[in-house]
């Protein structure tokens, strides 16, 4: 008998109530019962995104919603800046290039956040820039960018700020309207503890103005088609939506509402701090040098140990799925997710298993040291 | 207490085992447990599509997979023929036009199938045609096109034949390899009795050759990215797939395997014949004039009765969701789906409820006549 724990930066663990909501009898996506679900989800997502503007929903992964922001706002040849602090920033650049945008890429060493000063200089020397793409939380390293600071640069210049907050949203504060963000894309399978398959985007009025002028072809991803369908007498999606996932997502959003968004952010911050304190107390080195977000922690394996081996032993011996490094970082780091349906004891059991894993791999580690490190943070937070 | 019945052409009713398979603990999409699911689904889909070629899987509705066939095979300005017998043929034309293809549209009156002779003439006068798009079963009317006959025209001319079999696959025979089809797109939520959110495409070697030359931009829909991810040492999807839906889809495909594909086709044919016999026995007129497929039956409401009213009363009074007309046919027809997880008694109860609905609406109808019409077909089939 071995219980399973999903401690990756997504898909994340799903509460039983949300899992079971998927199993309700299928309803038709043009019938009144579904419309009620769509209305509720849309209202809840507006709160989560901090916007009074429109939200569109897609049956897709987060990458689909990233693509949607490119094809809905821009035209071939448009100049854009892509800020990359990791794997997912690189992905945004790849999408923008694929669709013929002229991309200026501001790349940062993995493990560091982006510096707003660099964007300011770039926008000064490229005043024709139409949009800036940025990752909120890049799960490849756990680093988070300061969206508010970037919004202060783009907004007065009337440049669209497009945010991949697939992993950031729900784990850290984000205010689409107040921070002058223009498109924020996210998904169901991270902080929102729902299975993958739903993506969504919040859209500012500046972004809608750009949609009108965009000349890139679009059909499935069309924001306008989504808006038109939602504005029918019976609100609906333009194409058959993933009904069972949406019913489950609505349940998860009810749980978010009950916890309260601010409490959810605090919980994620506490879990992140405890994880990092525990890892340091075990003598491990964290990968990022600053700008940590709250969703995932990247860790350097002890000297001479392959990160992939740790991931494998954690899964096989203890039933805990953590993540290895992506791309260039494969084998060089491992990542512990603390995103979504996670509480204090999940962190404790993960670090306890990690201590045992390292001991098995011949690393000198004081058993209980990591656990104690997290306990101290948790007890202090309650005091 | 009112039980619910989903008798639409999709999403269709989902068996409890498939519903509950969604509720299993979430697994990570790069971990071995998921790989096994992906391998099994891929193998099963190849059988269902009648192909030894590649199958790619998307988290999206069927429309997403339709878009994928346009952006993966073609380049702006390419000449294509779109054969339309209804709402979904029109959709393929709209997608192809949106992406800059030069579209010759062969439109047929709603309720009639396409005539291969027309395509033959068109291909003779437009020898530069690169592809032909066709709907297998157009659920807007229930009419099915003879794919094999069209494949005999396109194959010797080395023209790609691209098939929307979202609703046809599983309800009628289709053999991708033997009929020389090049791309067949379909989805989870029709004959395959799984919730919506998964689309897939079978791809011929001719189609792969076209993928290499295509200049339309693509990222989420890229067939090449799917193939590359599947061919990694651990087969996977390029982007986070809808894991819980895929686990459920695999269960449904196991049920298909158990029933046997040929038996599944026969069951759908029998249910379609019984539905039509029953409707005629009630004195109703069917909408299509020929070329019926097996997935859905379109019906003309009795003189002076709005189709929408019938749909509403069936749902509100009897808990049965059937479908109204789409686009131009709104209010003018109603549609009964018999697709997926449907057996003889579902047809009988639906016609019984329809008899009562019509009686309530003041239509002169002999109670039991429709039911008797279906019973006769069912009894004869067993004899």
TrEMBL record, chains A, B:
Its cofactor is pyridoxal 5'-phosphate. The keyword Protein biosynthesis does not apply. The modification N6-(pyridoxal phosphate)lysine is found at residue 190. SUPFAM superfamilies: PLP-dependent transferases. The keyword Magnesium does not apply. It holds the Pfam family Aminotran_5. InterPro entries: Aminotrans_V_dom (IPR000192), PyrdxlP-dep_Trfase (IPR015424), PyrdxlP-dep_Trfase_major (IPR015421), PyrdxlP-dep_Trfase_small (IPR015422), SP_NH2Trfase/AEP_transaminase (IPR024169). PANTHER family: ALANINE--GLYOXYLATE AMINOTRANSFERASE, AMINOTRANSFERASE CLASS V. This is Aminotransferase class V domain-containing protein.
């Amino acid at each position: 008998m071995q219980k399973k724990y999903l401690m990756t930066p997504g898909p994340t663990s799903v509460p039983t109530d949300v899992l079971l909501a998927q199993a309700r009898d299928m309803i038709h996506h043009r019938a009144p019962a579904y419309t009620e679900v769509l209305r509720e989800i849309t209202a809840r997502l507006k709160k989560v995104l901090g916007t009074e503007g429109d939200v569109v929903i897609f049956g897709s992964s987060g990458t689909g919603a990233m693509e949607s922001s490119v094809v809905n706002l821009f035209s071939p040849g448009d100049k854009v800046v892509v800020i990359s602090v990791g794997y997912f920033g690189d992905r945004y650049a790849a999408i923008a290039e694929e669709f013929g945008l002229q991309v200026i890429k501001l790349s940062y060493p993995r493990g560091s956040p982006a510096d707003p000063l660099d964007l300011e200089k770039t926008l000064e020397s490229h005043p024709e820039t139409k949009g800036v793409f940025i990752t909120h939380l890049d799960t490849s390293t756990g680093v988070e960018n300061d969206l508010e600071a970037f919004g202060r640069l783009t907004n007065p210049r009337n440049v669209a700020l497009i945010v991949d907050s697939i992993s950031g949203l729900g784990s850290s504060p984000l205010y689409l309207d107040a921070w002058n963000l223009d498109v924020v894309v996210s998904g169901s399978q991270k902080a929102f503890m729902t299975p993958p398959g739903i993506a969504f985007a919040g859209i500012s009025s500046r972004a809608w103005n750009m949609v009108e002028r965009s000349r890139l072809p679009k059909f499935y991803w069309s924001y306008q088609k989504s808006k038109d369908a939602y504005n029918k007498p019976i609100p609906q999606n333009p194409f058959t939506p993933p009904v069972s996932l949406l019913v489950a997502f609505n349940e998860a959003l009810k749980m978010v509402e009950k916890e309260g968004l601010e409490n959810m952010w605090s919980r994620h911050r506490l879990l992140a701090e405890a994880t990092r304190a525990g890892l340091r107390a075990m003598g491990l080195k964290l990968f990022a040098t600053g700008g940590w977000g709250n969703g995932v922690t990247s860790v350097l394996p002890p000297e001479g140990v392959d990160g992939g081996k740790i991931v494998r032993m954690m899964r096989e011996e203890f039933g805990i799925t953590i993540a290895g490094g992506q791309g260039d970082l494969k084998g060089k780091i491992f990542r512990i997710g603390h995103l979504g349906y996670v509480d204090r004891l999940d962190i404790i059991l993960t670090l306890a298993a990690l201590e045992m894993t390292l001991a098995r791999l011949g690393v000198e580690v004081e058993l209980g040291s990591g656990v104690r490190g997290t306990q101290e943070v948790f007890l202090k937070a309650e005091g």
